[in-house]
Amino acid sequence: MIEPNETGRYLSVSDYAKEILYLTKGNYSGNEPSIQNHLIKFKYIMEDRRENLNGRLEFFHLHWPREETFFKTGPKILSIRKCDRPSFTYTEEEVYPMMAFNIIKTSRIDNKFLTGLLNSKVIEFWLRYKGKMQGTNYQIDKEPILDIPFLINKSMTISSLVESILFINRVNIVILNSIPNSHISEAFEEVIDALAFELYFPEDFAEKGIEIEKYAKDIFKPIDGLSEEEQIKAIKEAYETLREKDNLLRNQIKLMKIELKELLDPILSL
Questions:
Q1: CA of 197: how far to CAs of 120, 124, 210, 215, in Å?
Q2: Model pTM greater than 0.85?
C-alpha cells in the first residue's frame, strides 16, 4: 500500500512498507481462518459500516473496493489527486494506492510517453486554468484528467527521457561526480517541456524554424533492458552532450525561449 508522501513526480513506488489485506466480495469468501482470526478483533468497528449493516458485505470485506486489475503488475501511471504541482509517476509494480491517488492504465498510448506529457509545463498550465483547483493546490480528479486535450505523436523521445528520469530518481548512484542527480533530472524535464511545446504549438515552432524533436531523438535513446552500468553510461553521455556549448538541441531550446517568449512565458512562469 502506498500513500502520497511516499512518492511523487517520476519517483519509484517499489519500496513501500505498508501492506493491505485487499479482501472483497469477489476475491474472498472467508475461507482463511488465520485472516479472520487477525481481523476479528476489529469486527465491532468494521461491521458498523452501511454495506455490512444491510447484509451486502461481511465484516471482513472492503467497503468500497476498486477494480483490482488496476493494481496488478503491468504498466500504469499513479496520479496524486491533491498536490501543489501535478505529480504523475510510471510503474509496472503491483501496488495498492490509497484513495488519494488516481490510477491511469491504457493500452492506447505508451504509458511512459503519457507520464512525461502529464508532468509537462503545458499540461500543468491547462490543469491550472481548465482543471480543478483548491486554492493554490491542484485537485486532479478523474474528470480533469479525461478532459485534457491529449496530443499524441509516434516519437519515443519523451518515453526515453522518462525512462532516464525514473532511473535517476530510483537508484542511489552518482551519475556525474560534479553534478547532482536532481540537476540532471531537471535538465531532462526541460527537454520534455520543449518537446511538449512543439507538439502543442507546431505552427509557431515551424514559423520560427525551431526543431526540438529533430535534435532530441538523436541524444535520448531507450535505456530499459540495458544493464545498470549501461544505463548510467547512456544518461551521462546524453547529459554531457546536451550541455555542450554548441549542442544544437540546447541552442534550439534557448532560441525557443527567445523567439516564442510571448507565447511560452505565461506557461514557463508557473
A1: 9, 12, 11, 15
A2: yes
